[in-house]
Amino acid sequence: MLKSFRIGGIHPKENKLSAGVAIQPVAVPEQVVIPLLQHIGAPCQPVVKKGDKVKVGSLIGKSVGFVSAQIHSSVSGTVLKIDKAMDASGYKRDAVFIKVEEDAWEEQIDRSDELVTECNLTPKEILDRIAAAGIVGMGGATFPTHVKLTPPPGTKAEVLIINGVECEPYLTSDHQLMMEKSDEILVGIKLTMSVLNVQRAIIGIENNKKDAVALFTKKVTAYPGIEVQPLKVRYPQGSEKQLIDALTGRQVPSGALPISVGAVVHNVGTLFAIYEAVQKNKPLVERVVTVTGKEVQRPCNLRARIGTPLTKLIDAAGGLPESTGKVISGGPMMGKALASIDIPVTKGTSGILIVPAPEAKRREMKDCIRCGKCVQVCPMGLNPTLLMTLTEYEVWDRAEKNAITDCIECGSCSYTCPAYRPLLDYIRLGKSKVNGIIRARKN
């Protein structure tokens, strides 16, 4: 019997329209806009100025705190300016504008496709390369990878969990990366195991990706300590706490981190980036992005340089359909609607979903009918309708006591609500407010 997590969950239509479509590179644009904040934590400080020449891989943004991630140029050319630019959240933030002039790369970067399996670096040296490369969680969370690989004092990693689930509807970038870069991902796993000093790693893959399950099951025989576990198709299984539960049977306590149960979770895209950083000296300057939607002419998986305008990716998929009602960064469940498609690709851009106008319209909200469906599907065991009400009436102490900060923002509650109530919208607002209160209390 296939494993899965124990509490809640749903099974929305998968709509994997771009499944099996080979990864294709997007042409380098004439200009890129590279934000200096592409991660959870402190923004980077620019180390370039107007008129400076840069190459692919040149450092342009330096970390100013431990929870931060270096930013590198994804192109070669001239820095035009450092100015504000809109990001996926709709806010304007500092960014480096670069005019592209050629395709020169930093000399230390190995651009060959030759697989490098041997590594003579110490765990500390591997970790330093990961930090220097600016790697973050590629599943969308964008938490700096070197921080996650540095467990807090008093904690010890026992198992590395690899997230190959990609349970978000429509998205296929991780699946295709697994099919095309399995060897590199496996080397990345071994490097990460070395840093964490763990002897066991589990690759979790949902059973709708049977080709990836078969491929990795065959290849892990050459890698002692690494195993593959097919999983029941169930959303939001790609969330850290749900994946840990499904693969190990351990449940992360309320308010705690995965390391509290001895687990560290990394996305397959992150592990591929680790391979490239350590074995190829390549910083995180590009990523795979799914461009998809029911009316999209050519749903596809594209390899794009960081800073490339989303319009370039949409053009590569056949252009913006006339029926478009909304463009979402990410998937339909956890993604965010965009105010503009001129924003750049960042380290956290996993997909671009183009939604037809009829599906983009919200239905009229009705009164709660007390059916309890939102409670049944919540994977964190919360009461979403109560948390929405507490947010509406600004009862922040009760919201905190009812664990609003445990919400993983998966959207299962809103998806299943027969009264079309915007449960997640209110919970996000309440969660942000309560987190602010908690931070102020600590200070």
Secondary structure layout plus pairing:
Elements: E1 23-25, E2 31-35, E3 45-46, E4 53-54, E5 59-62, E6 71-72, E7 76-86, E8 92-102, H1 123-132, H2 145-148, E9 159-163, H3 173-180, H4 182-196, E10 201-206, H5 210-219, E11 226-231, H6 240-248, E12 263-267, H7 268-280, E13 286-292, E14 300-305, H8 310-316, E15 324-329, E16 336-337, E17 351-356, H9 357-360, H10 373-377, H11 384-392, H12 396-401, H13 412-416, H14 423-442
Parallel strand pairs: 1-14, 9-10, 9-12, 10-11, 13-17
Antiparallel strand pairs: 2-8, 3-5, 4-7, 5-6, 7-8, 13-14, 15-16, 15-17
Helix pairs in contact: 1-4, 4-7, 11-14
Could you walk me through the main structural features you see in this protein, from its secondary elements to its overall organization?
- The protein is α/β, with parallel strands linked by helices.
- Among the domains are: 123-280, NADH-ubiquinone oxidoreductase 51kDa subunit (Rossmann fold); 373-442, no CATH class.
- The chain contains 14 helices and 17 strands.
- It has a six-stranded mixed sheet with strand order 1-14-13-17-15-16. The protein has a four-stranded antiparallel sheet with strand order 2-8-7-4, with no helix packed on it. A four-stranded parallel sheet has the order 11-10-9-12, sandwiched between helices.
- The longest helix is centred in the C-terminal third of the chain and has 20 residues, at 423-442.
